[in-house]
Design a protein that fits this description.
By secondary structure, the protein is α/β, with parallel strands linked by helices. It has one domain: Amidase signature (AS) enzymes, CATH 3.90.1300. Helix content is 34%, strand content 14%. The chain has 13 helices and 15 strands. The strands form three sheets. Strands 1-3-2-6-8-7-14-15-11-9-10 form an eleven-stranded mixed sheet, with helices on both faces. Strands 4-5 form a two-stranded antiparallel ribbon. Strand 12 and strand 13 form a beta hairpin. The longest helix has 24 residues, at 344-367.
C-alpha cells in the first residue's frame, strides 16, 4: 500500500504506472482513503465496485490509464447520484455517462469520486444544503470557489490528481485562481456536453482542474471533438500535448494588453500588483509587445444570471416553487427574480447587452492578441455566507465576483487562470490570460512559459488534507 495519493501531476502518475513503481489499484485505494479522511468536504460520493474493477483492469498504455479522477456532481456518471447539488433532486441517479466522462473512460481514467459543487453551479462558492461547506486547502475558513469547488479543493489538497470542471461564468478559472491550480476555459463547444444538456444562454463549457499545463493538454487530446449529442460541439483538433512549446517562438511580438480590472471590475490593490507583475514578467519572458488600450465592458452579471436561470427551472420541473425552501438562498432568490422578470422585454435587453459586449470584445481582439487580467477580484473569501461586496476595502455589488470571468463565457473565447503568486497572508492569486476564439494552444504555450520559469506548487503545502 502506498503512503498516500500521488502528489505529482497526472502525466507523471501514468509514467509511474508504466514503470511498475505504482499500481492503479493501490492509487485508487489511496485516493478513496484520503477522500474519506479529508476535512475539506470536497467529495460527496465514492464509487465502489465499478471503480475497483476499472482500476484492476486498467491499461496503463492509455493516456490516463489507471488514473483515479474526481467528477464534479453536475456531470453525469452512470449509476452515480445526479442531484445537481440540490436537495429537491437528491434522489436522482444518472443513467448514462456524459460525453466527457465517456471519453475519459475510453482513455483509461477511473472515475473514483464525485466532487462537490455549488447548487446548479450558480455561484462561485461551494456551500449547499445537500452537502454542506467545502473548504479551501490553503485556508479552511476560505472557499475554494465555485462552482467546481470540490474538484479544485481535491486536486490542490492532494486527494486526486485531476478533477472535472465546468465553466459557465468562471467556474473553472475562479476555483483555479483561489486554489493555486491551472484552469483552462476553452472556446465554446471545444469539448462536447450532453447528452440531455440544454444549451441555455450558450455560455457553459467543460474541462478540468489540473496541477500542470501538460495534464490539461492531455485532457483536451482525450476529450475534444464533435459529438452528435452536442450539435454545437467543434471538430476535433489533434496534438494538444504533442505541440506544447512547439510554437513558443511564434509568441514573440504578439500584442498584449495588461488590464487587471478588465474594463470595469473592482479589484483589490494587492491582486492588481501581483497580476501586473506576473503579466510584465510574461511579456519579458516571451518577447511580447505591450500595447495600451482602453476597454469599457458592460456589467454582464444580471443578464447572465437571468438567462441562465432557465436551465435551473427546467431541471426542477414540477417541483418548483414548493421546493424553494429546500434550496440555498442565492439560488432560490435568483429563480424567484427570474420568474418575476423574465419576459420578452428582459430577453431583448439581455440580447442587447450581449451584442454590446461581443462587439467590444471583438474590437479588443482586433487591437491585441492577448489580454492579461485578474482571475478573481480578490483572494478567496469566506467559505460560507453571502458573497462579498467589499474587495480590497472598496465596495462593489456581489456581481463583481464574476465580472472578470463572465465576458469570456458570453463571447465564447478561451481564457485561462495561471498561478502567479500569493497575497501577503499566503493565499494564491491567479492571472487570467485571454485570447481570441480557437487560440487555446497559444494560451497553453504562454502558461507553459510561466510554469517553466516560475513553477507553482502542485499541491497545497501540507497536503493531503
Amino acid at each position: 500500500m502506498t503512503d498516500g495519493p500521488w502528489l505529482g501531476d497526472a502525466v507523471s502518475l501514468v509514467e509511474a504506472f508504466r514503470r511498475g513503481e505504482r499500481h492503479p489499484s493501490e492509487e485508487l485505494e489511496a485516493v478513496v482513503a484520503a477522500a474519506e479522511a479529508s476535512k475539506l468536504n470536497a467529495v460527496c460520493h465514492v464509487d465502489g465496485e465499478a471503480a475497483v474493477d476499472a482500476a484492476r483492469r486498467a491499461d496503463v498504455r492509455l493516456p490516463f490509464g489507471g488514473v483515479p479522477i474526481g467528477v464534479k456532481e453536475l456531470e453525469a456518471v452512470a449509476g452515480w447520484p445526479h442531484s445537481f447539488a440540490s436537495v429537491p433532486l437528491a434522489g436522482q441517479t444518472a443513467t448514462t455517462d456524459c460525453s466527457m466522462v465517456e471519453r475519459l473512460r475510453a482513455a483509461g481514467a477511473v472515475p473514483a469520486v464525485q466532487t462537490t459543487s455549488s447548487e446548479f453551479g450558480a455561484t462561485n462558492q461551494t456551500a449547499t444544503k445537500l452537502h454542506g461547506v467545502t473548504a479551501n486547502p490553503w485556508s479552511a475558513e476560505r472557499t475554494p470557489g465555485g462552482s467546481s469547488g470540490g474538484s479544485a479543493a481535491g486536486v490542490a489538497g492532494g486527494l486526486f490528481t485531476l478533477g472535472t470542471g465546468g465553466d459557465g461564468g468562471g467556474s473553472i478559472r475562479i476555483p483555479a485562481g483561489f486554489c493555486g491550480l491551472f484552469g483552462l476555459k476553452a472556446t465554446y463547444g471545444r469539448i462536447p456536453r450532453g447528452p440531455h444538456v440544454g444549451l441555455g444562454n450558450f455560455s457553459s463549457v467543460v474541462g478540468c482542474l489540473s496541477r500542470s499545463v501538460r495534464d490539461t493538454a492531455r485532457w483536451f487530446d482525450v476529450c475534444n471533438g464533435f459529438h452528435p449529442r452536442d450539435p454545437w460541439s467543434l471538430p476535433r483538433v489533434e496534438g494538444w500535448e504533442r505541440d506544447l512549446g512547439r510554437f513558443a517562438g511564434q509568441l514573440r511580438g504578439l500584442r498584449v494588453a495588461i488590464l487587471p480590472e478588465l474594463g470595469g471590475a473592482v479589484v483589490a490593490d494587492e491582486t492588481v500588483e501581483v497580476v501586473t507583475a506576473g503579466g510584465e514578467q510574461l511579456v519579458a519572458d516571451c518577447g511580447l509587445r505591450r500595447v495600451e488600450v482602453q476597454l469599457d465592458l458592460p456589467e454582464p452579471g444580471a443578464a447572465w444570471g437571468l438567462t441562465g436561470s432557465v436551465g435551473t427551472r427546467r431541471k426542477l420541473g414540477e417541483l418548483w416553487p414548493e421546493c424553494g425552501a429546500d434550496m440555498t438562498s442565492p439560488v432560490r432568490r435568483g429563480l424567484e427574480v427570474a420568474c418575476e422578470r423574465l419576459d420578452i422585454d428582459s430577453l431583448v435587453r439581455a440580447e442587447d447587452l450581449r451584442d454590446t459586449l461581443n462587439e467590444a470584445m471583438a474590437d479588443l481582439f482586433e487591437r491585441v492578441d492577448i489580454v492579461i487580467c485578474a482571475a478573481n477580484p480578490d483572494v478567496a473569501f469566506a467559505a460560507q455566507g453571502w458573497l462579498p461586496t467589499t474587495f480590497g476595502g472598496r465596495d462593489a455589488p456581489a456581481s463583481n465576483n464574476g465580472r472578470l470571468t463572465i465576458p469570456a463565457n458570453l463571447y465564447g473565447n478561451p481564457a485561462v487562470s495561471i498561478p502567479v503568486g500569493h497575497s501577503a497572508d499566503g493565499l494564491p492569486i491567479g492571472m487570467q490570460v485571454m485570447a481570441a476564439h480557437h487560440r487555446e494552444q497559444m494560451l497553453l504555450d504562454l502558461a507553459l512559459s510561466v510554469e517553466q520559469e516560475r513553477p507553482w506548487p502542485l499541491v497545497t503545502p501540507g497536503s493531503p488534507l
